[in-house]
């Protein structure tokens, strides 16, 4: 994607850039930290059965695999990405109000499909703005992005307490208000002009650069990552419903979700100290083993009398089954993909992750309907397939960085 050089105005750092981006990240993740754990509970409270819930959760995943790269590419071509971000956040808030309409299956599915189009690009676009500040002005990305993790944690915990007091009907209200707060923060987004290179999910980058990435090592590795990640679909779709079914309160459900995120953050903080000398293939194998142990353990916790403490222990494995996968993917791309092709590499990985997650989420509804919590065991062979693909990747691992 050919872009003009930076203008003199773009070389001037916007006032309070880090503070403004921190506010964007903080408000961005409140709605996401509410939707993932509690939206399935709202769907169940509205009378949808497990297979309908699976379709409502999975259909947007299939759609966003296509629409998100298109919209991020549009943002790259816009006069200023901030304007596109504002429009998408405003559109998200307006469309989310559709959940206040009568909750028929057709209406909820239609709202969810429309919402995912404008909602999913928020995070990559915020990342794009922040990374422009890192490149141009030496801003600290983690210092800005950490507020997203903090707000996500707070949304997990606060959402649980709110639902304990009000019931699941509060979920659409929380999402709507959170998106309103995100819109206020978006209006203060720093204007950065056009990026010099395409953003991480640019369809243009994928089109022009991806073919040279179609080597056995990269394909096996990213397919393995996508499938190991997809083995978490049953967890994301139905674990809150399961916890509620055995009498765990909303506030504790929120704390269980938050504990998983805390474990993930801890892995990010200590990964380099523990695994700096470990090959990326071994990192992914460890992550796959962590996933398998997690899916074996989940159905056993309550029957063995381990109680809520047992679920907190199993949730600690989020640091292995999720965080190490995320880190391992980025480590592989950093080691084997040249800088000008990282956008395409990220886009291909995003496609695999999104597609397989959507497919397994769709299958998770019938699994939960028929097997209940024992459906977690069906995630074990999925994780094993992912590990087998990582093993195939190791056999074709390049000795030198990919060039060309």
TrEMBL record:
Its main location: membrane. The keyword Transmembrane applies. The chain crosses the membrane at residues 21-41, 53-75, 82-101, 107-126, 147-164, 170-189, 217-239, 251-271, 283-302, 308-329, 350-369, 375-393. It is a multi-pass membrane protein. Residues 20-370 form the Major facilitator superfamily associated domain. The keyword rRNA-binding does not apply. This is MFS transporter. It comes from Mesorhizobium australafricanum. The lineage of its organism: Bacteria, Pseudomonadati, Pseudomonadota, Alphaproteobacteria, Hyphomicrobiales.
């Amino acid at each position: 994607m050919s872009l003009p050089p930076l203008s003199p105005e773009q070389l001037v750092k916007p006032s309070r850039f880090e503070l403004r981006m921190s506010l964007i990240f903080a408000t961005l993740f409140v709605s996401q930290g509410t939707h993932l754990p509690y939206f399935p509970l709202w769907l169940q409270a509205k009378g949808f059965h497990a297979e309908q819930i699976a379709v409502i959760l999975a259909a947007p995943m299939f759609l966003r695999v296509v629409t998100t790269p298109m919209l991020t590419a549009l943002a790259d071509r816009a006069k200023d990405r901030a304007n596109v971000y504002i429009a998408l956040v405003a559109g998200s808030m307006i469309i989310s109000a559709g959940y206040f309409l009568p909750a028929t299956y057709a209406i909820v599915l239609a709202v969810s499909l429309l919402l995912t189009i404008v909602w999913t690009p928020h995070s990559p676009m915020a990342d794009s703005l922040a990374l422009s500040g890192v490149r141009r002005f030496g801003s600290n990305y983690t210092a800005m992005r950490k507020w997203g993790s903090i707000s996500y944690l707070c949304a997990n915990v606060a959402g649980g307490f709110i639902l304990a007091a009000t019931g699941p009907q509060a979920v659409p209200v929380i999402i709507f208000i959170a998106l309103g707060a995100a819109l206020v923060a978006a209006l203060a987004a720093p204007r950065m002009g056009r990026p010099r290179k395409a953003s991480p999910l640019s369809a243009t980058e994928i089109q022009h650069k991806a073919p040279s990435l179609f080597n056995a090592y990269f394909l096996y590795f990213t397919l393995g990552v996508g499938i190991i990640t997809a083995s978490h679909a049953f967890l994301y779709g139905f674990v809150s419903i399961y916890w509620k079914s055995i009498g765990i309160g909303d506030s504790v459900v929120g704390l269980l979700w938050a504990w998983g995120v805390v474990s993930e953050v801890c892995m990010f903080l200590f990964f380099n100290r523990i695994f700096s000398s470990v090959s990326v293939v071994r990192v992914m194998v460890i992550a796959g083993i962590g996933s398998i142990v997690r899916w074996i353990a989940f159905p056993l916790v309550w029957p063995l009398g381990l109680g809520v403490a047992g679920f907190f222990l199993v949730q600690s494995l989020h640091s292995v089954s999720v965080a190490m996968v995320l880190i391992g993917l980025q480590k592989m791309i950093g080691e084997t993909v040249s800088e000008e092709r990282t956008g395409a590499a990220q886009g291909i990985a995003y496609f695999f992750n999104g597609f397989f997650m959507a497919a397994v989420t769709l299958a998770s509804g019938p699994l939960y309907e028929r097997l209940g919590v024992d459906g977690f065991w069906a995630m074990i062979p999925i994780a094993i397939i992912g590990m087998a693909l990582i093993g195939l990747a190791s056999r074709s691992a390049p000795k030198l960085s990919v060039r060309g």
